Amino acid sequence: MFKSKVYCIFSVLVFIILSISLTSAQTLVAGKIYNSDYSGNIGEASVIVTCNFNTLNTNSLNDGTYAVRFDVGLCNVDNDVKVTATKDNLAGEGNGVISVCNENQNCDDGLVSIVNLNLKEVAQPQNPPSQAVP
């Protein structure tokens, strides 16, 4: 009887630990924002990341890096990722695919996508010439 109680308690603990690890699993989408020729970083850009119709917003740090984390249920392996960024009159976008993190990516997350992009100047809309009133 004592063994069955210990086994039952052990089983419940294993279930709880697995449940916590599964619910806390996340997908990392990260990258760096550069200027138009990739020679410099752009900090404090507004970044929008969309994965599997789910959207997260963030800002790039002073060195141009950004990162967001989706719950695995919202963004999983082979899902497409779209990243758009803007700052003042600069804009850019890039795409990626979620994959399993490998040892070369130096990440603790199970799933990851790295999307670097450059921002280019956006043409400002021209005001039509004013017409003289007769």
Task: Identify the CATH architecture.
Answer: Sandwich
Q: Uncertain runs with pLDDT below 50, 5 residues or more?
A: 5-23
Secondary-structure element string: HEEEEEEEEEE
Question: How would you sum up the global shape?
Answer: globular
CATH class: Mainly Beta
Helical run tally: 1
Number of domains: 1
Structural class: alpha+beta
Helix amount, in percent? 10-25%
What value does the average pLDDT take?
A: 81
Rg (C-alpha, Å):
23 Å
Beta-strand content: 35-45%
Overall number of strands:
10
N- to C-terminal separation?
102 Å
Query: What is the CATH topology classification name?
Result: Immunoglobulin-like
What summary fits the major beta sheet? 5 strands, mixed
Structural features, described:
The protein is an alpha+beta fold. It has one domain: Immunoglobulin-like, CATH 2.60.40. Helix content is 16%, strand content 40%. The protein is built from one helix and ten strands, in the order H-E-E-E-E-E-E-E-E-E-E. The chain has one helix spanning 2-23; strands at residues 26-34, 46-51, 54-59, 65-71, 80-87, 90-97, 99-100, 111-114, 117-118, 120-121. Strands 1, 4, 7, 8 and 9 form a five-stranded mixed sheet that branches. Strands 3-2-5-6-10 form a five-stranded antiparallel sheet, with no helix packed on it. Strand 2 and strand 3 (54-59) form a beta hairpin.
